Amino acid sequence: MATQVLDRRRCVSCNRWGGKRRPGVAPGEVEYDEHDDKGECVEGPWHGTLRSPRNACGQWVLWVELKAPGS
Questions:
Q1: Element (H, E) at 31
Q2: What's the average pLDDT block by block, 10 residues per block, for the chain (71 residues)?
Q3: Domain range annotation of the chain
Q4: DSSP alpha helix (H) spans, the chain
């Protein structure tokens, strides 16, 4: 598994990214399979296109799975 920190605001940590992922072991990290790492952008500026976990855009929205309870 590969990891990406949420502070980088990349597709893998965006709520609009439809790829396979899970919250990382460490807070603020996302884990994904680097051999199966494409995901469709859903309702973002790249809607309907496959995006890499390392792509970014100006409309990043924090993935709900990474939000702290009660926030």
A1: strand 29-32
A2: 95 98 95 97 97 96 86 57
A3: 2-66
A4: none
